[in-house]
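Preliminary data (for renewal application), fructose -6-phosphate complex.
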Amino acid sequence: IHEDSNSASFYVANEIAELIRRRQKEGKMAVLGLATGSTPTKVYDYLVKFHQEDGLSFKNVATFNLDEYYPMQPDSIHSYVRFMNEHLFDHLDIDKKNIHIPDGTLKKEDIRAFCDAYEQKIADLGGIDIQVLGIGRTGHIGFNEPGSSISSKTRLVRLDRVTKLDAASDFFGEENVPQRAITMGVGTIMSATRIILMAWGEGKSRIIKEAVEGEIRESVPATFLQEHPNCDYIIDEAAGSLLT
Ligand code: F6R
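Predicted structure:
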C-alpha cells in the first residue's frame, strides 16, 4: 500500500524498467501484458519519461493489451488502440510489429480464429513476463466479468451493466457503450509469470477488499488472483482503506 497513486505508479514503472533491462542483457524480448483505463496512465507517463530522459529502450519489448471494445474502429476516441498510442506507444522506440491489441474491426466469424492466434502469439514469445491489471467495480480483470471461469481464454464477451454504466460518461450515454468486447481470459492472465494489479481511490476500496479477502469465486473474477504464485496488488491508501 503506497501513500498515493504517484509513488505506487513510480514503483510499478521501475519494476517494468528493470525487467526490460534484464531482458536486454539476456538478448531476449520482455513481454508485457498491458491495461487501459484511468489506473495505469501514470505508469505509462513514467515509462515514457524513462525512455526520453534515461534512454530506456523498448526495442526488445513486445506488448499484449488485455482488451478492446467490439465493435470498435482503431481511430475512434473510444478505441484502446488510440488510447495506447496516445499514452505510450507513440512516445517510445517500440517496434510497431511487437504491439498486439485485440482487433475491434473483425467480422464476427473471424473473431474465434483471431483469439486463438492471440493466445498462440503470447505462447510463441514464451508467455507474459509482467501482466499489468486494473480492476472494475464488478471485480472484472480485463473484461472478464462475473461468471468468467478461471481457465477462460481470449474471447468475445458481453459487458456487465455496471461496467457499461462506468463507461457511460466517456461514451456520452450508456446506450452508446458497446455491448461487447474482446478480452484476454482469466486463464491467459493467470499464466503470466508476474501479475501487478493496481487500484486507486476510495471508489475501489470495496472491490479491493472483496478481491483480496473474499472467497475465491466466479462472481468476483479478481478473486482468482489469490491462487497466482506471484501476484501483488499495488494500491493507494484509499483503495486499501477497508482491508483488515
Ligand atoms: C482495461 C481493463 C479494465 C480496467 C478496469 C478499471 O484494459 O482491462 O479491466 O482495468 O475497468 O478501469 P479504470 O482504470 O478506468 O478504473
